[in-house]
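Same chain as my last thread, 460 residues:
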Amino acid sequence: MKMKYLKISKVEGPLIILEGVKDAAYDEMVEIEVEGQSPKKGKVVQINRDKVIIQVFEGTTGVSLNNARVSFAGKPLEISLSKEVLGRVFNGIGEPTDGAPLYLGKKYDIHGRPMNPVARFYPRNFIQTGISTIDGLTTLIRGQKLPIFSGDGLPHNELAAQIVRQAKITESQEDNFAVVFAAMGIKHGEAEFFRKSFQQSGVLKKVVMYANLADDPIIERITTPRCALTAAEYLAFEENMHVLVIMTNITSYCEALREISASREEVPSRKGYPGYLYSDLATLYERAGMMKGKKGSITQIPILTMPNDDITHPVPDLTGYITEGQIILSRDLYQRDIYPPVNVLPSLSRLMKDGIGEGYTREDHPDVANQVFSAYSRVQDIRSLAQVIGEEELSDTDKKYLEFGKQFERQFVKQGYDENRNLERTLDLMWELLKILPKSELNRVKPEYIDKYMEAKDGK
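reply #2:
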């Protein structure tokens, strides 16, 4: 029998406090009936003996100590899932917002189940994004978690939309590929931008979108990525699909977590964030991967903005510990009209070395990537030297490196918002750029690759 509590002990901001509650559970869903209003949903966020603190999704406007009835559902938030979620748009708690009727499917707890480390399968195959700096130099591997570190005002939304439109796996498995997109704390205009971008490009049918808007309840922002990851787990491990999960903006999620923590009067840690921020982020990121005995996979690209472009800020700092590399966007490149403004040198993919080369991408990929990275790294040293002694005093070789750096940024890093480069084109472009340098400088590629991919193409 469901028990209703007729008297609230206290109302504080988005929280209501009940005393004398029996058998409540953490994260349990709650329904609040208020006179003259539609029922509100809430979630148990803290328990102290018989005292329970409930976070109300819709806020506590109109709720007083004596005009509300509170009943406990006896279970956490669950969402209905079936393969029909593909092509649909939902809010942060899994309710459809696209006007289409609600389907009936099996219900799943949004908190999922931890993936047993012993059952994990090491990722190998790559996902092509159509973006040269990612595919060529920070390759995304299926089952990996590879975040994008951005800053306020940088085009991370455009980059996210472009990845959703262009991401693909091998042609034979293309029909078995889906994208789950989770947006947290975005403006109405941004939500419409994402929806239209997916719709006009024709990829919406393979995308599941969960959107929490800036004026939606804070607690809903906490559930949005969990709803998205639960949908991804269903598609990957029950429908055997390869799923790419893109989550933006993780910083908005963490700020919501900080706000909720402050309202619960918890002891703050670095910059006011709760002390459990690391473990909370891990509950999201560690839901990526591949499992033995399962054909599907979950790959994550979390996107976060670094306040004041500070990479030591708690959000990017902790994210870097948990994930397997990072792609960093550069404000300097963006101001020079280079899109996408990926800063190649501090960016890396820790799983890249095991997912490229013969049998995965192309035999020359590891060598040419190392050579291009090494050359661009030297360009930075030469640019610094040129500022001291002047460009005219540089050696002929150094001047060629400067030309390489200029062309690398203008031809390789820079590409159109609608430009989708396949991996073959990306690797060929890297060889074209290496022609600028003297052959004696190409000490990281095998001579046979130079003959095959550089000189042989010239002969044609």
